[in-house]
Structure formats: structure tokens, C-alpha cells
Specification:
Strand order of the largest sheet: 4-3-2-1-7-6-5
Number of strands: 9
Strand content: 5-15%
Largest sheet: 7 strands, antiparallel
Structural class: alpha+beta
Length: about 725
């Protein structure tokens, strides 16, 4: 048997995931020994745990007695079982995951790290997480390639393991070449798609369909990724697309992918506006107002006219469908009126939907209940409002239709009319007693809906029937009508609301004002209108973001100029210590950075862990921003608080050659030493960028300097197998 031991304890360095050991187990001898380590699949600079005795070539041998007796089975499949076990001695009792499977599925060539260890079985079900969300890769050795194996046999192995969706297209061709590391890179691209969409790839497709589509260059649908997502997702999608490129040679190395993804998620820790600090309180996204809350205008469960199976010649519904209204009025009887159809629809519902007022009047005269409801709670009046059938609406109201009766979501006819923007219907409903303050189940009033959808005439009608206090009514997320008009860019409505006493400083549940939402969405005219009122320009939301932060984050330079001209502070800080300059630099918004600089923004402000805007621009590889910041006297030698890196260290880590050149030209110290005694040259050697190494050496970088481990840049290049760089450094 073969067992994976996955240590669940944290590593020495939080940024490094513990290694996954491949253990060979002989149950007869009751002993086990380590035979491999998955260094490449976790990350390049993996952490060797204390379960290894010394160097990579010396592994600790395990015996069955090294584990506590109570093995807990966590999962089981056709190929093996996964157990939770505890290592002795009892004072530690560190948890491990052990997976056992048939040894015939293990290949002998996995007993060595050379040639490179390929997984060939990378998929979401083989990616485990510990309680600190460290990733553990399991099932090494289940799929393998041998020199004598042909593609057909290899494909059979993949198929039986259910891996076709993760298999790159070159596997389907007649090319005799064995799989390379690009195989796993492709699989990782599919895994990224699963994480971003929370869906299974090619769901419902046959294996033949998948093979055919993938070989033609088709991939899982990117449009399935939700529209409401952090901006970093766009870069993740770009990385994903590179990983599943049709040409294996164009797929990135795992080390490059790790560097890029860590830059997005771990080092910067700059939350996008989507992140919600109050999520543990059961609230939805802070920016729920960016999308329409309940698109009822699409008429969910609209009473449909009968389908073919109902169209018998004597069917009363068939006459409505054929629009033979005269025959319908002549044929309809009282028993038809009281009959209930699918979805609890009545004949009156169908008659209203047909649009013939005389037929509606005939059905009502036969005793139809004017306020009858469907299974979803729709009354005939609601159906008429949905279809904008003015004559029928008037007729129903004359027969006693209730204007304030709500559906299952408490939407009244006035809610539907306000959202559709039909001021004639709105006026008619209000004149017949509709409650202007009516709330649906999440607190939206007709005024909220009219403001969101930009129906100014309807807003005027509603305001004429509302009290001054009602203008500022909040729905469940604390949003006022002014929030919605501002978020969706309706300056005339915002002006009207402000003239009726709307509070420009009212905040929603995330402490965002109307100015926050309009600044983030880039609605210049709304921002201009709000700033004519007594608005607090520097008010901060629950994350410490001011309107200027949001405008800078989204590259709305004109709005930044408006806010700064009106006195907004260019150096206000979020709860994490970021200024608007940090956010603009991190996103690469050159024009916004220039505007902030011209208005007195500090280019050397230290944010979280002492990172300056220059650090962030270097880390994200934004050389144009780096150039502008340096021209504005940004300090190229300022060290951050964590690793003690200067911007040059960061640029070398990000392999941003233009940024390195800009920094060197502005007198960056090429021999600056981090807290771990690493120089920029050490980092450039590690990440394998030859032009950067050459530039550093030509500008005085000392190749003999050693880091805290006693390694020179040459040692680092040798350890990372950067052989071209090794030759350069030896010279």
C-alpha cells in the first residue's frame, strides 16, 4: 500500500505551506518509509517539516506504532481510504491525514525527484486544506507514465480516475512525447476556474464531447464567473487562461503562477470594495446596491396562456389563446370562473393577461373574485400592471381591486408600476388609495425602485404623496432613495431628493454615503450635485474608505480632482493604513497618481507593514507608476517593516525589469540588505530574470554578499537550477 502523510500543523513561516510526504507502507512488516516530497506542487521555497530528519535525502522512517490506534476514516472511494490519525508522543499528538490505496497504482519512478515529480491527477478533490487553510496536495503516484506506456493506455488510466476534464489537449493527439510539467499547469487552470465559478467543468457533457471541444481549443465558460467580484479576479482569470493555453510551451511555470497569485491575495492585503467586514453578522455584500435587488420587472411566473394540450375545441382557455373573445364571452359560464388552473391561477388571471377588457368585465360579472391570487401571490391587478393594461387596471379598481395587497414578497401593484416607470398607472393607483410608503419584505418602497431605475416623473408623483421623513426611508441594507439614485447615476433625481430634504450624509449598513457610491461608480454629475449640498467629503465607511479612496481605486481621476478641489484630504487612511495614493499605485492608475501628487498627496506614506506607494507599484509591476512616483521624489531606498525590503527588492521579486531600471536611475541602493540579509541580487537570482541580474551587476551589485543562510546569489541560482544565470554569476 501507499500512504500520504499530510501534516496539519503550521509551518515555521506562515507564508510557506507544509510539505506533503509520500510514504510507502508495508502492512505485513508494519513499517513505512518516506519515498518522496511534493515540493514543486506546493511552492518552490517549501518548508521542510520536523518530520524530516535533516536534509532532503534523509527521511524519517515511520512504524505503525508511531501513530495512535484510533484511526478515523474521513472518506473512501474506489481506490482507497483517507484517515485522520495522530502522531505519537501524546504531548504533541499532531494530526495527520493518511491516504491508503492499491500499491499497483504507484509507479517506481516516483521514488526519485529526478526526473521531476509529476502529479498527473491534480483536481479539486485531491486538494486538501488544514485548519489554517494551508493547501495539501494528495494522490501522488496514482496516475503515472512509463516509457513503455502508449497514449491509449495512459488515457485509460485518466478516464478511470475521472480526470478527463483536467486533461490537456496534447494528451489526445498522436504525439508520442511523455507528459511534462505543463500537464499539471493545465490541470491547475481548470482548478482555478472551479474555484472562481464554484461549478464543475463541462457539467453534463459526455467524455467524447469534452475530448472534441478541448482539442479544438474550447475551455470552460468564463462568463460563468460572477460579475460581482473583486478587481483582482480579472488578473486571476488572465493567469487561468495562460495555464490552460492550447500551446503547452506558452503555459507559465508554477513558480511564476505562485508569485503572481500571492501578489494578489497575500502580500498586499488590500481589500476591494466587495469585501465585507460585517459578513459574520449575516449581512450581504457592502455593495449590494451595485446590482438591481429584485428584478421583478421580468415577470416571474407570469400567468401563461394554455399550451397545446389544453387547446381542445371546447376549451374555454383555448378561445382566449386564439383571441376569439366574442366566442369566449358567449361560452364562458359561472363554473369556469370558479375553476382553478395550474399554479393556483384563475380564469380571471388568464382573461386579464389576454388584454381584452370586455372579456374581463364579463368574467367579473359572473362572480370572479377580483383579489384572487396565484401561488406566488399575484392578483389580477398585478398582472394588469405588469402588462400596462390601463383600461383593465381601471376596470379592476372599479370592481374593488385592493391596491395594497402584496405578493409573496410583499410587492404591491405600486411597486411594479414604480419599477416600470409608468406614471399614468402610478397616479391611478395612488388616487385609488395605494400606500406610497408600502414596503416589500426587504424594505424597498416604490420610491426606492423609481430612484434606482431613473424614473423622475414617478419620483415626483411619489414625493407629492410622501411625508418629508419618508424621503430618507432605509431598506434592509440601510440604503436610502438617495443612495440608489447616486449609485445608478441619476443626477436629476438626486437633485430632486436633496431639494425635498434628503440627508446627503445618511449612511447605509456599511457606513457608505451617497457620495461614496457615486464616487466609486464614476458618476461625475451626481458627485457634483452632492457636493453642492452640506456633504461630508472625508466621511469614512466601515473599512475606513473615503469617497476619494474609492475614486482613486477605480481610476476616476476627474472625480478625484473634484473632491480634492473641494477640500478632500489626499492623505486620509483606511483602517489598514492605505492612502488614496497607495490604492491608485497598486492598481497602476497613472493619471490618478499624477493628480494626487499635484494636489499634495504624500508619495512616501507608509501603509500596512510600512509599504509605500512605490513598494506597491513595484510589486504589481507598474513601471509607469514607478516612474511618476520617483519623479515626485518617492524614496527608492525606504524599507518596509516586514522583511525590510526596499522597492528594489520588491521589483526584483516581481521580475519587473523596467521598474528596476527606473529605480537604479534614481539611485536605488543595489546592495541594500533586507532583514534576512538578502540583496536585490539574491532575489533576482532566485526568480531567474537575467536582464535584472545583468543590470544589477553593471550598476555595482556585489555578487559575493551572503544572506542569513550563508548563500551568495550564485548559490541561490544553483539551488534554483537557473543554469544560465549560474554561468553569468560565475563570470
Amino acid at each position: 500500500m501507499c500512504i500520504h502523510v499530510l501534516r496539519f500543523s503550521p509551518s515555521t513561516h506562515e507564508t510557506q505551506a507544509p510539505a506533503v510526504l509520500l510514504i510507502h507502507v508495508d502492512l505485513k512488516e508494519k513499517s513505512c518509509s518516506c519515498v518522496g516530497l511534493d515540493s514543486e506542487c506546493v511552492r518552490e521555497d517549501f518548508c521542510v517539516m520536523d518530520c524530516l530528519d535533516g536534509s532532503l535525502g534523509q527521511f524519517r522512517n515511520f512504524k505503525k506504532d508511531d501513530f495512535e490506534a484510533d484511526w478515523i476514516k474521513v472518506a473512501e472511494c474506489r481506490f482507497g481510504q483517507l484517515y485522520q490519525v495522530k502522531l505519537k508522543p501524546k504531548p504533541q499528538q499532531e494530526k495527520c491525514a493518511l491516504k491508503s490505496f492499491d500499491k499497483t497504482l504507484c509507479a517506481n519512478n516516483f521514488y526519485s525527484m529526478k526526473p521531476p515529480l509529476l502529479h498527473l491527477n491534480l483536481k479539486t478533490s485531491n486538494i486538501l486544506l488544514d485548519d489554517r487553510l494551508h493547501v495539501k496536495i494528495s494522490d501522488f503516484g496514482v496516475i503515472h507514465w512509463e516509457e513503455s506506456m502508449d497514449k491509449k493506455m495512459f488515457m485509460e488510466h485518466l478516464t478511470v480516475r475521472g480526470n478527463i476534464s483536467y486533461t490537456p489537449p496534447e494528451t489526445f493527439t498522436q504525439c508520442p512525447d511523455p507528459p511534462e510539467t505543463t500537464f499539471d499547469v493545465y490541470s491547475f487552470g481548470i482548478v482555478m476556474w472551479e474555484i472562481l465559478t464554484q461549478q464543475k467543468p463541462y457539467a453534463g457533457c459526455s467524455m467524447t464531447t469534452v475530448l472534441l471541444q478541448v482539442s479544438r481549443g474550447k475551455r470552460p465558460c468564463v462568463e460563468m464567473i460572477p460579475e460581482q467580484k473583486p478587481q483582482e479576479c480579472d488578473q486571476m482569470i488572465n493567469i487561468m487562461s495562460q495555464c490552460w493555453d492550447q500551446n503547452p510551451r506558452k503555459r507559465p511555470q508554477f513558480s511564476d503562477t505562485v508569485r503572481k497569485t500571492e501578489a494578489l491575495s497575500k502580500v498586499l492585503k488590500i481589500p476591494g470594495p466587495i469585501q465585507n467586514k460585517n459578513a459574520d453578522k449575516g449581512q450581504k455584500s457592502d455593495n449590494l446596491w451595485l446590482v438591481s435587488p429584485i428584478q421583478k420587472i421580468v415577470l416571474p411566473e407570469m400567468p401563461d396562456l394554455p399550451s397545446d394540450d389544453h387547446r381542445a375545441s371546447d376549451s374555454i382557455l383555448s378561445l382566449l389563446h386564439k383571441k376569439e373573445f366574442g366566442s369566449f364571452r358567449h361560452s364562458v359560464k359561472r363554473e369556469h370562473v370558479y375553476k382553478q388552473f395550474s399554479g393556483k391561477k384563475s380564469l380571471l388571471h388568464y382573461t386579464v393577461a389576454s388584454g381584452d377588457a370586455e372579456s374581463v368585465e364579463r368574467v367579473l360579472s359572473l362572480g370572479a373574485e377580483v383579489n384572487c391570487t396565484t401561488a406566488r401571490g399575484y392578483t389580477p391587478l398585478v398582472i394588469a400592471v405588469m402588462h400596462r393594461l390601463h383600461d383593465i387596471i381601471f376596470l379592476l379598481l372599479e370592481h374593488g381591486a385592493a391596491t395594497s395587497q402584496g405578493d409573496e414578497d410583499l410587492w404591491t401593484a405600486l411597486h411594479f408600476a414604480a419599477q416600470s416607470g409608468d406614471d399614468r398607472i402610478v397616479r391611478l393607483l395612488l388616487d385609488k388609495g395605494a400606500v406610497a410608503e408600502a414596503r416589500e419584505k426587504t424594505g424597498w418602497t416604490p420610491l426606492h425602485l423609481a430612484c434606482q431605475n431613473g424614473h423622475k416623473t414617478v419620483v415626483c408623483l411619489l414625493l407629492s404623496r410622501l411625508s418629508e421623513e419618508a424621503v430618507g426611508e432605509r431598506e434592509a441594507q440601510g440604503r436610502t432613495p438617495l443612495h440608489l439614485a447616486s449609485a445608478y447615476g441619476h443626477p436629476d433625481i438626486a437633485k430632486l431628493l436633496l431639494s425635498q430634504g434628503a440627508d446627503p450624509n445618511a449612511t447605509d449598513c456599511s457606513l457608505s454615503t451617497a457620495l461614496h457610491v457615486s464616487a466609486e461608480k464614476g458618476h461625475n454629475r451626481v458627485v457634483r450635485q452632492l457636493m453642492k449640498s452640506e456633504v461630508n467629503i472625508d466621511c469614512a465607511d466601515s473599512r475606513g474608505y473615503t469617497p476619494l479612496h474609492l475614486a482613486a481605486l477605480k481610476a476616476h481621476t476627474g472625480i478625484c480632482r473634484q473632491l480634492l478641489t473641494k477640500g478632500a484630504s489626499p492623505d486620509c487612511r483606511t483602517l489598514q493604513g492605505w492612502t488614496p495614493m497607495h490604492l491608485a499605485a497598486q492598481r497602476g492608475h497613472v493619471a490618478t497618481v499624477v493628480e494626487l501628487v499635484s494636489q499634495g498627496g504624500c508619495v512616501n506614506a507608509g501603509g500596512e507593514n510600512g509599504w509605500t506607494p512605490l513598494h506597491l507599484a513595484c510589486h504589481q509591476g507598474k513601471p509607469e507608476v514607478v516612474e511618476k512616483l520617483l519623479a515626485a521624489k518617492a524614496d527608492p531606498n525606504m524599507s518596509e517593516d516586514g522583511e525590510g525590503w526596499t522597492p528594489l527588492h520588491v521589483a526584483c521579486t516581481s521580475a519587473s525589469f523596467p521598474s528596476v531600471l527606473h529605480l537604479i536611475s534614481h539611485h536605488a541602493d543595489v546592495n541594500a540588505v533586507s532583514s534576512g540579509k538578502a540583496t536585490p541580487l539574491h532575489l533576482a537570482a532566485k526568480h531567474g530574470c537575467m536582464p535584472i541580474v545583468k543590470a544589477l551587476l553593471l550598476n555595482g551589485a556585489e555578487s559575493t554578499l551572503v544572506d542569513s543562510s550563508g548563500s551568495t546569489a550564485l548559490n541561490v541560482a544553483e539551488r534554483c537550477e537557473k543554469w544560465e544565470m549560474v554561468q553569468l554569476l560565475k563570470k
